[in-house]
Design brief:
By secondary structure, the protein is mainly alpha-helical. The protein has helices at 23-57, 65-81, 84-94, 101-116, 122-140, 153-162, 166-176, 180-199, 206-212, 218-250, 284-288, 293-306, 314-319, 358-377, 392-405, 409-414, 422-427, 430-459, 468-480, 499-503, 509-530, 543-553, 561-569, 576-581, 583-592, and strands spanning 2-3, 144-146, 149-151, 260-261, 338-341, 348-351, 482-483. Helices cover 59% and strands 3% of the residues. Bound molecules: zinc ion.
Length: 606
């Protein structure tokens, strides 16, 4: 994950037909305005990041001063970016025909950012910020009770991975959904306030506003996600069949269900099934447990240096918060890993709680992917306002790809972490692929399917609040092939149990698209640059891989994201690479499922 709340707009305003007689002075006053805006923006942005950083690394039980400071900084930013002056000026300047492409992009960014906080309706914006904070507090402050005892979300997740008793599983799963009840009212309120905020600047609804960041309409975004699901559907249908039989055996059930009962899966939303599978022969945890946490981060840096990137700046090591606090520390920190771009320049930091194990090894490579992206687009050719990913999905794609590359066998062997065992590699070349698909392929049907369609209907079609749960479960059945046990009434709000519905709204398709981009880039690197199998690469030491990555990273958001993809891989955004990558697994699953009963329709949507 990365931390950058402000987004980039792509062409949404029609070009005007103003008189062009005064070309020169017109361009100059635009540039003067942009310079002044940038100066003020970078200052407020840096203050906001510093305040947010502090409230994430210094959580004190009885002291909310960091939280208050963070909210104040958010409000200061909102009132600047949404000011009437900025709305009117960026609108007026965008009508000019004499703008350079970079000026146009920056003005679009200004207007897009303003649309989320328009001070033309200050009361609505203020109410929305307040409602968002309250929703977050309700969500993170919620106490889950299991058998009369407080349990954490981590406890619930671990139990859902390990518990074999089916009745007990149902009980735990049901408890995990309790948080939705107190969140429903706030979600209805937020849906209205978010829609009202962006409608003031002419967007039809909040979902369309978020989608416009890609330079697309809502229908185009839905079509893109639906196409990705259609491309992967034959594979998903095989995975769906495979897991029904595997889980029925695991839980000792005679009857294999047609749809997967939600409480059978190891994840609260059925979005990741990978923990049902252990892959033998690659004990990376065992290899790493003798290393230090410091070594983990240093080794991840070494990977990037081997590709030709500079070592991380000294301030990264000084100012980051990379390791867990002692258990008895009075001060706590956010345990979720993130990468921060503090000043839109070279102050980059990471928040992690690294321990010497495989998960953190992958995460360290992932977070440094964001950090090197920040550092690479912070260059003189990219104005600060456009120092962002080519689109929101690129950041995650690059980070995840580097994490994935660090998990591939030849890389791990090459780093001397595990001794190659040719026999093990032969036996289980499919299992790592299956585990990966149970994570990434399965995820697409939750993100592109359930989340994207639910949020679209909630914001764009004003789905009635007394149908939230009914509609949620219709979509879960349609896209994921999962059903709940028993009635899920409208007093419950199972959609709101997903964090992003509350505090990262209407952009969950970013993650699905990031996988699509990831496999496209990885496929290109493996085949065209390294001439290795995409399933067994070793990026390490290959400067030409670094050059390829730098070319994608360098322009940030100053270039259209489609152009960036086309120029780097020669292709449009599509699911072909992902389908091809999992082709050996598809064949394997077909053989293994040969005598099994398929319950999903042969074609998606039948
Ligand atoms: Zn990330």
């Amino acid at each position: 994950m990365y931390k950058m709340k402000t987004l980039v707009a792509i062409a949404i305003m029609a070009a005007g037909f103003n008189c062009t007689a005064q070309n020169k002075p017109a361009t100059n006053d635009v540039q003067k305005y942009l310079d002044a805006y940038t100066k003020a923006y970078v200052k407020l942005y840096t203050q906001e990041q510093e305040a947010q950083w502090r409230s994430n690394i210094e959580i004190l039980a009885k002291d909310s001063s960091n939280v208050i400071a963070a909210r104040k900084a958010d409000e200061a930013m909102a009132s600047f970016t949404g000011s009437i002056e900025n709305i009117e000026k960026s609108r007026a300047y965008l009508k000019r025909t004499t703008l350079t492409p970079l000026q146009k992009k920056q003005l679009e960014f200004i207007l897009y950012t303003a649309a989320n906080n328009p001070q033309t309706i200050p009361a609505v914006v203020k109410e929305r910020i307040k409602a968002e904070n309250e929703q977050t507090q309700t969500m993170y402050g919620f106490h889950y009770h299991l058998d009369g005892k407080d349990v954490s979300v981590n406890d619930i997740d671990n139990m859902l991975k390990a518990e074999k008793d089916i009745n007990r599983r149902f009980h735990i799963w049901e408890v995990s959904k309790h948080v939705g009840i107190p969140l429903k009212k706030g979600l209805i309120n937020l849906r209205n306030l978010r829609n009202q905020s962006v409608q003031a600047l002419g967007y039809s609804d909040f979902f369309s506003y978020q989608v416009s960041d890609y330079g697309m309409t809502t229908n185009e975004m839905l079509a893109l996600n639906d196409q990705l699901m259609r491309d992967l559907y034959p594979l998903y249908r095989e995975l769906h069949t495979w897991i029904r039989y595997v889980l029925a055996a695991t839980y000792d059930q005679q009857q294999v269900p047609d749809y997967i009962p939600a409480h059978w899966l190891p994840n609260r939303w059925g979005q990741d099934w990978s923990s049902v599978l252990d892959v033998p022969g690659m004990d990376l945890d065992g290899a790493l447990k003798h290393k230090s946490a410091q070594w983990i981060v240093k080794d991840a840096e070494q990977m990037y240096v081997s590709l030709g990137f500079d070592p991380l700046p000294a301030t990264f090591w000084k100012k980051s918060s990379l390791y867990p606090y002692p258990d008895d520390s009075a001060v706590k920190k956010n345990n979720h890993a993130s990468a921060w771009h503090m000043d839109m320049n070279k102050d980059v930091r990471s928040l992690m709680s690294v321990e010497p194990n495989a998960e953190w090894y992958e995460t360290a490579h992932h977070e440094l992917g964001h950090i090197y992206y920040y550092m690479t687009y912070s260059n003189p050719s990219v104005p600060p306002l456009l120092r962002q990913g080519a689109n929101r999905a690129y950041h995650e794609a690059l980070g995840t790809m580097m994490g994935l590359a660090a998990m591939q066998r030849p890389f791990v062997y090459g780093r001397g972490l595990i001794k190659p065992d040719p026999k093990a590699a032969q036996i289980d070349s499919i299992l790592p692929l299956l585990k990966e698909a149970l994570n990434t392929v399965v995820f697409i049907y939750f993100s592109s399917g359930v989340m994207t369609h639910f949020e679209k209907e909630m914001y764009a079609d004003t789905l009635p609040a007394d149908q939230f749960n009914k509609r949620w479960w219709e979509l879960v059945k349609k896209y994921q092939g999962i059903v709940p046990q028993g009635e899920r009434g409208e007093n419950l709000c199972d959609a709101a149990t997903k964090t992003h519905i509350n505090d990262d709204p209407a952009q969950y398709y970013d993650y699905a698209l990031s996988y699509e981009i990831l496999y496209q880039l990885h496929n290109h690197i493996a085949k065209k640059i390294l001439h290795q199998s995409p399933h067994a690469t070793n990026y390490y030491g290959h400067k030409e891989v670094g050059d390829f990555l730098k070319k994608i990273m360098y322009p940030g958001a100053s270039k259209d994201w489609r152009q960036v993809l086309k120029q780097s891989t020669g292709d449009e955004l599509n699911g072909k690479a992902m389908v091809e990558y999992f082709q050996p697994l598809y064949k394997w699953l077909q053989q293994n499922n040969a005598t099994r009963n398929y319950t999903l329709p042969e074609h998606m949507g039948d």
